[in-house]
Amino acid sequence: MRIVVCIKQVPDAKDVRLDPETNTLSREGVKSVINPYDRHAMEEAVRLKEQYGGTVTAISMGPPQAKAILAEAISCGVDEALLVSDRAFAGADTLATTYTLAQAIKKTGAVDLVLCGKQATDGDTAQVGPGLAARLDIPYVTCVKKINGLEDQVLRVERMMDDGHDELEIDMPALLTVVKEINVPRFPSIRGLRKAKEIEIPSYTAADIDADPDQLGLGGSPTWVVKVFPPVPKGERTMLEGSLDEVAEKLTEILSDSAYGA
Amino acid sequence: MLIIDSEACIGCGLCEDNCPFDAIHVENGKAVVNDSCTLCGTCVDHCEVEALSIERDEESIDLSDWSDIWVYAEYRHGKIAQVTNELLGVGRELAAQRGVKLAAVLLCDKAGDAPGQLIAAGADIVYTVEDPALADFTDDAYGNALEDLARKHKPEVILAGATAIGRSFIPRVATTLGTGLTADCTSLTIGEDGHLHQTRPAFGGNIMATIMCPKHRPQMATVRPMVMKANTPDPDRRGEVIAETIAPQRLQSRTRVVRSVLAEGEQLNLGEADVVVSGGRGLDTPEGFKLVEELASLLDGAVGASRAAVDSGWIGYPHQVGQTGKTVASKLYVACGISGAIQHVIGMKSSETIVAINRDAKAPIFDVADYGVVGDLFEILPRVIAKLKERRS
Ligand SMILES: Cc1cc2nc3c(=O)[nH]c(=O)nc-3n(C[C@H](O)[C@H](O)[C@H](O)COP(=O)(O)OP(=O)(O)OC[C@H]3O[C@@H](n4cnc5c(N)ncnc54)[C@H](O)[C@@H]3O)c2cc1C
Ligand SMILES: Nc1ncnc2c1ncn2[C@@H]1O[C@H](COP(=O)(O)O)[C@@H](O)[C@H]1O
User: Contact B255/B140 with Cβ under 8 angstroms?
Assistant: First the structure.
């Protein structure tokens, strides 16, 4: 079974702030990490390989620095890694990203399964997985929390819904996006770390993946970000003060307000 | 458009046999395409002599072809999702500003009285597709159906709830339509330029971004539940119900739902509660967490939790509020022993009145609170619970 896992390098979300003066993202001093959900996708890919045989390829579209997360993927059991990197990709929204990733995946040959994280913590869109499946013309299931088995090229999976969960069958080749509940990712192994050090991670350009320049980057992106701004802080607040009993009394008064329907 | 090379075409009819839209026919020994063509590419794939190809216009499309605001009506287990009513609420404003109609799209096996409810909630038109193949939600069938309807009627805007279902199949529709999609919007307005201005949080809520899709149609967005205001249903509202059919091939799914399991004890429906009392790591133990449950029950409210409390095993994941949990917009939200990390705050800050109890005066939860109590919750909560009980008796 040939598995591709898509991983993205993201800034550690809690460190990102907007510079109120310039309205630009200050990424200085912000650590870059593997998108947390993608660790679970990676782990699931490696587990499937261990169970059913095959290979796992990690792919990331991003700047040259993203090689760091691909090396980390190798250290955690992924067999090979591929960076897709070109200045032409800059400013890609999800439509241009899925085009680029799909071209890259097609270039690597036939796949049985593509795994993605549910969403990336920088944009939180959760759109790349479904969009990529549409580009590859393969079926997909999002928010998979469990893989129950594989038989005759049909995977059985559980997907989280707002009101519970669904159990589904999906014909392979297929794409799944996974949630954190699916597994606990392993740590790098000594052997893996050694391999990550030695391995040469190839980098594909737009030309290498036979990309149509009109569909890449900013130019290939239908959505435009026209404004970014810090969230509006809430207005004034009242701190309840006094003795313990006074505070409890005031609080009880507030909570008893019939306006809340209680 | 579909290009037919009539030199190469041998009139074999494979394209005609395989077209899901009845859009291509062999006439006088050559293939001829009609207006129903959606450029789906099925014929191109089936043509054995490479006589067919697709040429897409990369220029900005003629925006004036596209009008009306659409809302995907989420309908599951015989119930319209609350977010659909909220979308019809904001949709009415957008439609009025644009001077167009507001339509709801209902995909299901049996519509029952749902179309009437959608009209009462604000829709001028309800497009319904009733088909047994739509009994369960699958991305293939729902995605193809919405895509085909959009190509046929050309709406300028398509809105859907940022729910498990909306976030799953709407990105596919945007991709196959080749248009932009903005996820998880919290505000939608029509700008002076006539485009839809879509505002959403990014980076876990640390930043807000306004996004436009100026050169493509439809403009698509998923919208957070509990952010927009639903209109009070008006049973006297008039509207038109239009029954649509989708080609059977397009409703075939490569995924099949074997079983739908409703979470146990999930009647709580955190998202729709007027009062939510939430607890965090400050509760310290499962016994500590009981204080939150007791207060919630006294206030007829639902119980929420921070991820720290869920991860500690004091309460189940369905109670988690925040970025990776539920979004609530209750009338009253009481945060007990929660620090107010941005990932939590993003899920509760649109509540009307927020009360925070925390012993750390610097805890960021106080930045979003209307009423704050700096103190030990093990001293405060039991007193409040006792006082509330006293008042009730
Ligand atoms: C990608 C990502 C997604 C996330 N999603 C979510 C999410 O959906 N929801 C969520 O909640 N979190 C989420 N988190 C985690 C979030 O960042 C915080 O770690 C979490 O919300 C902290 O929970 P807490 O406030 O209960 O715990 P803490 O941050 O440990 O805060 C406990 C608070 O209790 C107070 N306290 C302690 N003892 C007492 C006492 N006796 N009396 C009064 N006060 C007391 C302390 O002063 C402290 O402020 C996410 C994180 C990441 C990285
Ligand atoms: N640039 C990228 N390179 C590789 N994978 C990506 C990239 N962007 C998104 N993905 C994958 O798509 C998932 C969803 O991302 P998003 O739609 O951006 O929230 C991520 O968890 C990754 O698996």
Answer: yes
- The residue type of A3 is I
Residue A165 β-bridge partners: A160, B261
pLDDT (tens place) for every residue of chain A, 262 residues total? 999 999 999 887 656 665 555 555 555 567 789 999 999 999 999 999 999 999 999 999 998 999 999 999 999 999 999 999 998 888 789 999 999 999 999 999 999 999 999 999 887 899 999 999 999 999 999 999 999 999 999 999 999 988 789 999 999 999 999 998 899 999 999 999 999 999 999 999 999 999 999 999 888 889 988 777 777 766 678 899 999 999 999 999 999 876 665 4
Domain that holds residue A81: 2-215
Within a domain: A229: no
Tell me if residue B316 falls in helix, strand or coil.
coil
Rounded to two decimals, the ipTM of the complex is 0.82
Plot region of A149 (φ>0 → left; ψ -120 to 50 → alpha; else → beta): left
Let me know if domain B2-54 sits in CATH 3.40.50.1820: no
Residue contact B374–A18, C-beta within 8 A: no
Protein fold of B63-251:
Rossmann fold (3.40.50)
Residues in chain A closer than 8 A to B79 (CB atoms) = none
Q: Compute the Cα dihedral for B184, B189, B193, B195 and give only its sign.
A: positive
Give yes or no for a contact between A28 and A22, defined as CB atoms under 8 angstroms apart: no
Q: Which atom of ligand 2 is nearest to the CA of A131?
A: 17
Residue span(s) of chain B under CATH 3.30.70.20 come to 2-54
**CATH class name, domain B267-392:** alpha beta
Examine residue A220 and state whether it is found in any structural domain, yes or no: no
Q: Look at the alpha carbons of B76, B77, B78, B81 in this order and tell me if their dihedral is positive or negative.
A: negative
Reported as a single tens digit per residue, the pLDDT across A74-123 is 999 999 999 999 988 887 899 999 999 999 999 999 999 999 999 998 87
pLDDT tens, B8-20? 999 999 988 877 6
In this structure, is residue A207 part of a structural domain? yes
CATH code for the domain of A52: 3.40.50.620
Answer yes or no: do A238 and B178 touch at CB < 8 A.
Answer: no
Measure B260 CA to ligand 2 centroid, in angstroms: 28
Counted domains in chain A = 1
Top mutation candidate among A4, A5, A7, A8 for ligand 2, by most atoms within 8 Å of CB: A8
C-beta of residue A124 within 8 angstroms of C-beta of residue B323? yes
What chain B residue is nearest to A248 in terms of C-alpha separation? B384
Q: What residue spans in chain B does CATH classification 3.40.50.1220 cover?
A: 267-392
User: Is there a contact between B367 and A231 if contact means CB atoms under 8 Å apart?
Assistant: no
The ligand 2 atom at the shortest distance from the C-alpha of residue A5 is 23
A 10 A CB-CB count for A225 gives 14
Query: Where do you find CATH 3.40.50.620 in chain B?
Result: 63-251
The answer, yes or no, to whether any atom of ligand 1 lies below 6 A from the CB of B281, is yes
CA distance B153 to B65: 9
**What span, in angstroms and rounded, lies between the C-alpha atoms of B305 and B310?**
7
Q: State yes or no: cis peptide before A233, omega within 30 of 0.
A: no
Is A26 contained in some domain?
A: yes
B218: preceding bond cis by omega (within 30 degrees): yes
